[in-house]
Amino acid sequence: MSVILSAQHVSKSFSVRQNEDVLALRDVNLDVYEHEFLCLLGASGCGKSTLLNMFAGFTPPSQGDILLRSIPITGIDPRCGMVFQSYALFPWQTVRKNVEFGPRMKGLPANECRSVAGRFIEMVGLHGFADHYPAELSGGMQQRVTLARSLAADPEVLLMDEPFAALDAMTRHVLQEELSRIQRESLKTVVLVTHNIDEALITADRIVVMSPHPGQIKAVITNDLERPRNIDVQLSPAWGELKKEIWSLIAGDVSLHAS
Ligand SMILES: Nc1ncnc2c1ncn2[C@@H]1O[C@H](COP(=O)(O)OP(=O)(O)OP(=O)(O)O)[C@@H](O)[C@H]1O
């Protein structure tokens, strides 16, 4: 497996007040492999979003390097596509036009844009909704459109910052399983930030457990649970054991944060 994205000795501090810095990340080293689904998991404030934002090129490291295919990222790079919590769709365009956005920006001919969009609309389970407008869809369906649009833009790495946090628990659960299936089908490299252990267990090949103050990597856990990670797998002893192991790594940080 080849490394596609890499953080090497990355630290990041933010100036909050005059002469006061917050060390959001300290000496983080992480390789993301091509075609893997990697989750960044940890309590609030452990630097998950900061690391993801650096992978997206939104903000540079204070120290160290972020490399995409061994070359430092120096700004926003279309090869790393970000999916946010809010759907950020164009409300005046249909589902199809929204999903066609990336291919159109790349200058693909109209018939190709349409066929790429059609493929991903199908893949996210929105067959029959291509001519609907975002306002005519539920939150879960809108997030499916966002996902299809991100996939159609064909980034090499899909970066997702708590993409399902705004959804109700049941929709979230369905979309976690769907995202896992879509990633297997598309073979896209995905880095997903989450607070949710179950979300990481459903989707990830590897789970990077982070700890706060300053943000650091505490453990990298290989998730070998069998796929698809449906309800039977979720009720298995192996699931419970892995969840317990991860929770024992995070629990102290959560109570520390809450106190
Ligand atoms: N733009 C900023 N300015 C100042 N401090 C920041 C900024 N962004 C992040 N921080 C600080 O850096 C630390 C890490 O924040 P970050 O949002 O990356 O953590 P997180 O793990 O994603 O948290 P959450 O799960 O709550 O979103 C926190 O202490 C936060 O207050």
From TrEMBL:
Keywords linked to the UniProt accession: ATP-binding, Nucleotide-binding, Transport
Signal peptide per UniProt: none
Matching CDD domains: ABC_NrtD_SsuB_transporters
Occurrences of domain ABC transporter (ranges): 5-237
InterPro entries for the chain: AAA+_ATPase, ABC_transporter-like_ATP-bd, ABC_transporter-like_CS, ABC_transporter_ATP-bind, P-loop_NTPase
Any one Pfam family match given in the protein's UniProt record, by short name: ABC_tran
PANTHER family recorded: ALIPHATIC SULFONATES IMPORT ATP-BINDING PROTEIN SSUB (PTHR42788:SF13), TAURINE IMPORT ATP-BINDING PROTEIN-RELATED (PTHR42788)
Name under which the protein is recorded: ATP-binding protein
Organism of this sequence: Bradyrhizobium nitroreducens
